[in-house]
Amino acid sequence: MNEALWALGRGTGVVSLALFTVSVLLGILNRSGRPLFALPRFSVALVHRNVALLATAFLAIHLVTLFGDSYAQLRLVDFVVPFLGAAKPFWLGLGTLAVDLMLAIVVTALLRGVIGVRVFKAVHWLTYLMWPVALLHSIGNGTDAGQAWFIAFAATCSIAVLSALGWRLSRGFVEYQNVRIGKAS
Amino acid sequence: MNLRAPDPRSAADPTVLLHIDWTKCDGRGLCTEILPELLARDEWGYPLSYGYGSNVPVPDRLLDAATDAVSLCPRQALTLIDR
Ligand code: SF4
Questions:
Q1: Among the atoms of ligand 1, which is closest to the Cα of residue A33?
Q2: Nearest CB to B45: which of A35, A113, A176?
């Protein structure tokens, strides 16, 4: 039973990170205001949201299964307050930090209509902190970190997010940007 | 208050208006995708409402789509106004 929980705990962590990566990519694409091939803009927005919620669900399973695991030695406080863990406190703490950030990001996103676009946006920016923190947690805490498949996975995610970020910061990122600022300049 | 907008009120018109707040709109084009019958895109990507300015009458059959547009607008620039 413990073996199964351990495998599930690790697996859901990896799936969650993969889904978060996809959601970050879709979020950046969404911000550019462009459709994704045949997928219209509003669908990009909806898929971005749904993939993030799915990632959150996997994250919840990740937490619950590892809570039941004796090797991880988790206490309830480790879900909320970072860097207090019994085993690998720093790397576990990064995971806790990512969970806290993720909760704030998801809740404010779902309540966007109530809290207003300014607060939503300010908190949503924290995603750029949450994603690398989560990645570092998976590398430092994950027992699969040395495996070839995990290295390939982590490298693929990193390259994808870094490229998207490069595009995000480039001129002409926003659709119509070149028209709006004037082609002559 | 947009005094220059043509008054969209007339007996045959629908009762719901889609209000576009231009100070918030960033021309991301989600609304023009969801409501192609109501909104076009101008050459800078902003919505264009075929002569209605900032308050576009929404026919009943497009009410659901208009509600979706309001909730999906990334800048929360759209509101529905009952009149
Ligand atoms: S969806 Fe919102 S921000 Fe985008 S063009 Fe329409 S009103 Fe403007």
A1: 4
A2: A176
Neighbours of A94 (CB within 10 A): 23
The amino acid occupying position A25 is L
> Which spans in chain B are helix H?
30-34, 63-72
- Domain map (residue ranges) of chain B: 14-82
Model confidence, pTM: 0.86
Quote the number of domains for chain A.
1
Q: Which domain holds residue A16?
A: 2-184
- What is the CATH code of the structural domain delimited by B14-82? 3.30.70.20
Q: What residues of chain B lie within 8 A of the CB of A31, using their CB?
A: 74
Which site among A30, A36, A42 would you substitute to test the B interface, given the most B Cβ atoms closer than 10 Å to its Cβ?
A: A42
Q: How far is CA A25 from CA A5, A47, A73, B8, in A?
A: 30, 11, 33, 41
Q: Are A30 and A45 in contact (CB under 8 A)?
A: yes
Task: Write down the ipTM of this complex.
Answer: 0.76
pLDDT (tens digit per residue) in A3-44: 888 888 889 999 999 999 999 999 999 998 888 988 999 999
What is the per-residue pLDDT across A78-108, written as a single tens digit (0 to 9) for each?
888 888 877 788 998 899 999 999 999 999 9
